[in-house]
Amino acid sequence: MVGVSDNVRGFILAISSSIFIGSSFIIKKKGLKKAGASGTRASDGGYSYLGEPMWWAGMIAMVLGEALNFSAYAYAPAILVTPLGALSIIFSAVLAHFILKEKLHVFGIVGCILCLVGSITIVLHAPFEKDIESVKQVWHLAMEPGFLVYSVIVLVLVGTLKFFFEPLYGQTHMVVYIGICSFMGSLTVMAVKAVAIALKLTFSGSNQFKYFQTWFFTILVIVFCVIQLIYLNKALDIFNTAVVSPVYYVMFTICTIVASMIMFKEWDSQNATQIITELCGFVTIVSGTFLLHKTLDMESSSTMSSPPYHSSPRLPEP
User: Fold this and answer.
1) C-alpha distances in angstroms, 101 versus 61, 168, 241, 242, 288?
2) What distance in Å separates the CA atoms of residue 304 and residue 41, rounded to the nearest whole number?
3) What is the mean pLDDT of residues 81-102?
C-alpha cells in the first residue's frame, strides 16, 4: 500500500531527524556558554554567539535534522511525525547528563522509557497521509474558517507573551519563551508541510512553484523559523537543557496536533479506538517528559553557569 510505504519513509526520516536535533541542543548550549563568558548573553539580548564556531556546529546539526524532519512531513501526517520528536528529547537529555554534566536522575531514565513507549504506540496507530495533488489544495485547507480562527488566536497569544509577559517574567519563567516557540511552531509545521508537499510533487514532475501559494508558504516558513530560533536560544541560555527540551516538546506537539487536526482533518478517517490509542500514546509521552522535568528538583547542586530554573532551587555546593 502506498499509504503504508509513505508512512514508513516518514518514520525513518523522523527518527534520523531526532538524532541530529537532539545532539544540536547540546552543541549549541556549549556554544552559548562559551559566548556568554566573553560577551553579552543571548538572554540579555546579545548575539555574541554568532561568532562562536561551536554554536554554528550546533546550528548545522539542527539544520540537517530539520531538513530530514521537513522531508518527513511530505510523506507522513503531522500526528505521526511530530510526536517522534520525543526521541530527540531522550538523546538530548542523555547527552546533557554526560557532556554538560546536567544530572539526569533515575526517574529521568524512566521518563525516557515512557517517551519511547508512547512514541511506538502512536507510530503503530497513526493515520495515513491524505493524497494531495496540488499545493492549491493545501491553500484551500488553510483558508477554511476553522484554521483562520486558530491562526488569529495563535498570533494574539504570541503578541501577548512577547509584549506583556516577556519583560516581566521572561528571565524567571521558561514557559514565556517556550510558549512563543510552540505557538509559532504549530503554524510553522503547517507551512512546512505545504512546502514539503510542493517539493515532492515538483520532483514528481508537477511543478508547484508556478503557484504564488508555494512561495507564500515558503516565506512563512523562513519568518516563523527565525522567530522560533531567537526565543529558543533565549530559553536555552537561561534554563537547564534537560528541562527546556521536554517542555518545549510537549507544548509544541500539542499545538501542532491541534493545528493539524483543524487544517488537515487527519482524524476523519480513523475510528474512536484508533484515536483514543493515539491520545493514550501521547499522554504517555507527556508523562515521560514531565517526569524528566521533575528530575531537576532532585539535583543536589548546580553545574550550570546560567541562573537556575527558579521553581526548582538547588542546594549549594558543600
Assistant:
1) 21, 30, 11, 10, 21
2) 14
3) 80
- pLDDT confidence band for 311 (50 / 70 / 90): very low
- N-terminal to C-terminal alpha carbon distance within the chain: 62
Q: Which residues contact 118 (CB under 8 A, 6 or more apart)?
A: 83, 86, 281, 282, 283, 284, 285, 286, 287, 288
Interval 252-307: pLDDT, tens: 888 998 898 889 887 777 788 888 998 898 889 888 877 876 665 555 344 444 44
- Determine the distance from the C-alpha atom of residue 239 to the mean position of all C-alpha atoms in its chain, rounded to a whole number: 17
pLDDT tens readout for residues 128-156: 777 788 899 999 999 999 999 999 999 99
C-alpha cell at 163: 509584549
Half-sphere exposure of 224 (CA within 13 A, CB side): 22
d(CA 203, CA 189): 21
**292-296 — which CB contacts under 8 Å span 24+ positions?**
292/89, 292/93, 292/104, 292/108, 292/111, 292/112, 292/115, 292/242, 292/243, 292/246, 293/243, 293/246, 293/247, 294/107, 295/103, 295/104, 295/105, 295/107, 295/108, 295/111, 295/242, 296/240, 296/242, 296/243
Residue 98 three-state SS:
helix
Tell me which residue of 124, 26, 58, 88 sits closest to 253, measured CA to CA.
Answer: 88
Query: For 316, what's the count of Cα atoms within 13 Å in the CB-facing half-sphere?
Result: 1
pTM here is 0.73
Q: C-alpha cell of 207?
A: 511543478
